[in-house]
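Lab notebook, bench 4. The sequencing result for the construct came back, and we need a structural model before the next group meeting so we can plan mutations. Quick request posted to the team channel:

Model the 3D structure of this chain.
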Amino acid sequence: MAQNVYDVLKERGFIRQTTHEEAIRRLLEKESVTFYIGFDPTANSLHVGHFIQVVIMMWMQKFGHTPLVLVGGGTTMIGDPSGRTDMRNMMRREEIAENGKRFVKMFERFLEFGETGPDGRPAQPGKAILVDNSDWLLDLNYIEFIRDIGRHFSVNNMLRAEAFKKRMEKGLSFLEFNYMLLQSYDFLELYKRHGCKMQCGGDDQWSNIISGADLIRRELGEVAYGMTFALLTTSEGTKMGKTQAGAVWLDAAKTSPYDFYQYWRNVEDADVRTCLSMLTFLPMDEVENLSSLKGSEINHAKEVLAFEVTKLVHGETEAVKARDAARALFGSSGASGASGDLAGGTQNTPTSELCADRLKAEAPGLVTIMREIGLVSSNGEGFRAISQGGVTLNGEKVTNPKMILAGADFPNGEAIIRKGKKTYHRVVLVENRNSK
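Done. Here's the predicted structure in token form:
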């Protein structure tokens, strides 16, 4: 293993900007460095965009450095304007606190946490620390804060900051304008409380990070460091982690392990290397070998990617289930678009139940069932999907938009409905139970 995590992060394509490149590299080589990354709990689950930051913390911890996980219970009350064209919705304090608790449970799946000593420093270097900036932000005296901290910030420089550019197009509120001051103050507090020497984050946080390092220099006369990482984007420059149904979440209740697996299994060929290098811990020689595969062979690399990322997030058992389900539906390679072998493994796909008596009593249409199980949002969408040749039932293309389901459509008591190339759903007949 390389001796310096900086070299690993550089090789794998993470690092974008640094405040002091050579000094940071030397620092990370010589001692256990306490660094922090902040996460505002604007939702009740971490998503794929957060996960790349989690992977970076895992790499840093593997090399003996101390991750300081900051939950933004205070900053979420304001809302980060970075990279946004619209203002974030205001959230209640209770909702933010509840989301923060959910974040904490997820972080515990990825990092090894320890305690702080009497001086606030890590009692065990290398063990992660968890803090919430609501502890020092919510009770701030605004006049004192503006007098002591605000005086260090140039409005002219702030207006040129990358963090505010998109919001300036529609109008930046004074509320959001305060966000940079608060994030910078976080860095100052963490430096004083926990000896935190470095802030890390996505490349859209560069302006906020260098402002925090500058505040530490002005207030304490000390050197603090900043490092930003690549955002997870496709080869075309668009953010990854979005589907037609919304964000790809790390919570299994919001994005099932199967759907999570399928998201990575279906990335574009050009994005395989980036995802393998940044979202897995596979050695780089293996990453290079897999991403160099051509034609249909690249599907093997995608299956490895999907399995490794799903294993990290949901555990090996769920990853195996998702892989087996995909292979059962799409064939041994798991490739979307194949009719697949419906025997075995389908119990791990998204599943709904349908009362067998309902087939006799109501003779429901296929489109009605598709709408009820969430494959389409309306009957009209279902009719259009069938008319355009985008729906199959048990591997056979459906041509009649008004098709009525019957018992014969459920061999062995189940049917597989596919919409488009990638969306499958299993419908199981049950006795004496309300349909779902």
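The chain has three domains: 5-229, 242-345, 350-430.
Will bring this to the meeting.
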